[in-house]
Amino acid sequence: MSTAPKIGIVSLGCPKALVDSERILTALRAEGYALSNTYEGADVVLVNTCGFLDSAREESFDAIGEALSKNGKVIVTGCLGKEEGLLRQKFPDVLSITGPQQYESVVEAVHKALPPKHDPYLDLVPPEGIRLTPRHYAYLKISEGCNNRCSFCIIPSMRGDLVSRKIGELMREAEKLASAGVKELLVISQDTSAYGLDLKYAEDTWRDKTWRTKFIDVAKALSTLGIWVRLHYVYPYPHVDEVLEVMSHEGVLPYLDIPFQHASPKVLKAMRRPAHQAKTLERIQAWRKAQPDLVIRSTFIAGFPGETEEDFQFLLDWLEEAQLDRVGCFAYEAVTGAVANELPGAVPEKVKQERRGRFMETQQKISRARLKRFKGRTLDILIDKIEDGVAVGRSYADAPEIDGLVYVSGAAAKVGDKIKAKITRSDEYDLFGECVA
Ligand code: SF4
Hints:
With about 425 residues, the protein is of the alpha/beta class. It has helices at about 15-30, 55-70, 85-90, 105-115, 155-160, 165-180, 215-220, 240-245, 265-270, 280-290, 310-320, 350-370; strands at about 5-10, 35, 45-50, 75-80, 95, 135-140, 145, 165, 185-190, 205, 210, 230, 250-255, 295-300, 325-330, 380-385, 390-395, 405-410, 420-425, 430-435.
């Protein structure tokens, strides 16, 4: 006899609501939940409501009342979920209320009311989900969409405004990944420092503690997992300072990926970049003072419409002063639908490429000089591959795919091991060392 937790569902409303119900059930089935056709046979009942017409509202109220009296454990979702106050007043005993399209919140409410039972022989999906990255690192997406309107970008028009995941749900996913053997989490989004703004930093629980859905709280919570955490797509807002204090070599790494894109105030304004008025050079200096080990990676665009030789020289001077560790640079390319396409002062292709080349040349010298500071130091290296007997991995200073590598000789290591290496030399991208433990 199956011991799988059982879900009952009452689906009301239009075809869109029906599709939502199907999506919810598909996710729950993949996690090992079974379905029940009766109230009595279900461990929890989902009511997907409709609130379009008065008659539909009445029907939804009746369905909730019936599910409560016949089963007792009821989760309400769908269009009527928008009227949470009214529903709470009418049905104080419902376990959770979520609105339409809040598909992940419904699944999360089910997890809370009725935790999934993972059966390794039957489940199609492992508890940590299906991942396309190697076993030892994983991406953790903390939000979708973006509230900024950078003129070269069409992401907000494609994916909409910022929608953050609540911190409790996010941390449970991070925890599952850590227990599945992941040793490094790469935190991603379109604007990591804006995390939780859309939810007004709503409070949520994880490990019996209250946390705010906020950048600093997620950094603190992730730092308790005992694995590496790397922060990507952070903007240089003042509140990033707090996160610097949480950084360590065992948790949230002293590493920030900040897509600066340019330095000239005029170009940044035309790009409509967030935090473009911030005094970034001063901020970088203050961060380095607080966290001398801090590594900063960034990306830039050369040849943005209206960029003059003077603006570009400003960028190169800024780069010399900022002394960033890792940098990528792209020649500006028009994206269909982007506002920047209408801007005057298009830069000829040849000039864009030439500026990109000069930029990379300047940065190569900086990177080469910066990497020298690791010589003689012993670093933890997470091994990504073994090549001709040499263990190849990354230190806290290198994100997978985009940064450099560390080549470690004398190591009897496997992929996914974390070893210690003494650095003996460096070039403009990579480090070389010997295994010491
Ligand atoms: S480039 Fe700008 S608008 Fe586009 S996703 Fe990033 S921050 Fe948002």
